[in-house]
Amino acid sequence: MTSSPHAITMRRLATASALASAIALTGCVTGGPRLVTPDPPPIPDAGPNVPSSAHVVLKDGQQVVANTAAGKMKIEAGPGLRRVFDWDGLRRGAIVDPRASSFAGGKTNGLTYDGTPKVWDNANGITKLRYEEGERHFENMDDAMIWMQIRRLYYTYNNQGVVLGWKREGNTLHTELWQFYVDGKKPTSMPDARDSSINVGKLVVEPQKMYPHLVFNDGHTEPYNAETASSYKGGGSAGKADESGKQADNCNWFKRLFHQCPAPKPAPAPAEDTASAKPAQPAPAPSEPKPAEPPKPELPKATITGNVVNIRSKPTTKSDVLRQAKKGDTVEIVKSENKWSYVQFADGKKGWVADFLLKKQ
What does the alpha-carbon distance between residue 34 and residue 235 come to, in Å, rounded to a whole number? Predict the structure, then answer.
């Protein structure tokens, strides 16, 4: 018997309706997650021109890149008073202000900023900026080196006196960029300078790299990686994990509907400990006690107060740096000489440190 076209159409509608009802009952959805790559955070437009009274380190179209103990920092200059900061894979910008007066008794004005920039998306908790840029003048090199230690930032500098320091503190990004002058001139050599770790050059704009993520039907998001890629490729129907924690292969909503998914594999039973008991060893004969050594006199202790402090081979800033200590490190004072202390660390290593960078206990 041949069915009429109308009867065929009605059977198809009934089948589709039953299938849709079955899908609804099983809780399956056919729409998978969407793969979305967000736009980079906004950067402010060009700022006003830099006043001639502001002696800056970077000119429009320049950048400085420095590797410090806090990590890599890049600062882009311009147009005008705009400065863009690139750190930890993040990129944010601000229109900074020209200084109305010189910084900390300096001879020239520079740039400054202290607050929340107008165009600045939350950067892993960083929402505020404190920035200083300009010239710093010192009578001698010792004063310059001591000044960096008491500022408590992570500094890197070259032999020409270009100095960049920065750190994260709470919700604030602290950054400073200086051109040092010693006895009225730019230096040609500075102790412990690292020319390869700081570079001033032509601006190369590198937008923040943004990574895709999956947006699911219920609104939650997940990073798009090797583990979540199957959810996207499978139309949002990644198989459920079986009891052993492994993903069921090709178990989509259609197979679950018609009970075609493989049964979960039972977790393997824990292996029995078949190691045989070892025979008890006879206890060693007690040895005669050695005479106790007289206790060594306890050395006075102190705490490092500078953020990053150079430990030197001699009691002068012109001597070699043996190592660096961090704020809070505890040392023992072996001896003191001319406002310097010869200290010993927990690992037994020793060196000289200026007394004003120690808090004696």
Answer: 9
**Cα–Cα distances in angstroms (integers) from residue 169 to residues 126, 148, 172, 196, 351, in the given order:** 9, 18, 5, 27, 29
Residues belonging to the chain = 361
Longest dimension (CA), the chain: 115
Token pair of 8, please?
Answer: 């065929």
* Dist. CA 235–CA 252, nearest whole Å: 9
What is the torsion angle, in degrees rounded to the nearest 10, for the CA atoms of residue 80, residue 82, residue 85 and residue 89?
A: -100
Question: What are 219's two structure tokens?
Answer: 């609104």
| pLDDT tens, the chain, 361 aa long | 555 655 555 665 555 555 555 444 444 444 568 888 877 888 998 889 999 888 999 999 999 999 998 999 999 999 999 999 999 999 999 999 998 877 655 566 899 999 999 999 999 999 999 999 999 999 999 999 988 988 778 999 999 999 999 999 999 999 999 999 999 999 999 998 999 999 999 988 887 777 787 888 777 777 777 666 666 654 443 333 333 334 444 555 445 544 555 666 665 665 555 555 556 666 666 666 666 666 667 888 999 888 788 888 999 888 888 888 888 899 999 998 888 999 999 888 999 998 888 988 8
Q: How far apart are the C-alpha atoms of 88 and 109, rounded to whole Å?
A: 30
Give CA–CA dist 350/280, Å, rounded. 47
- Give percent helix, percent strand, percent coil of the chain, each to the nearest 5: 15, 35, 50
Q: Is the pTM of this model over 0.85?
A: no
Strand 71-77 and strand 82-87: the pairing is antiparallel
Domains and CATH numbers, the chain: 62-202 (no CATH), 301-360 (2.30.30.40)
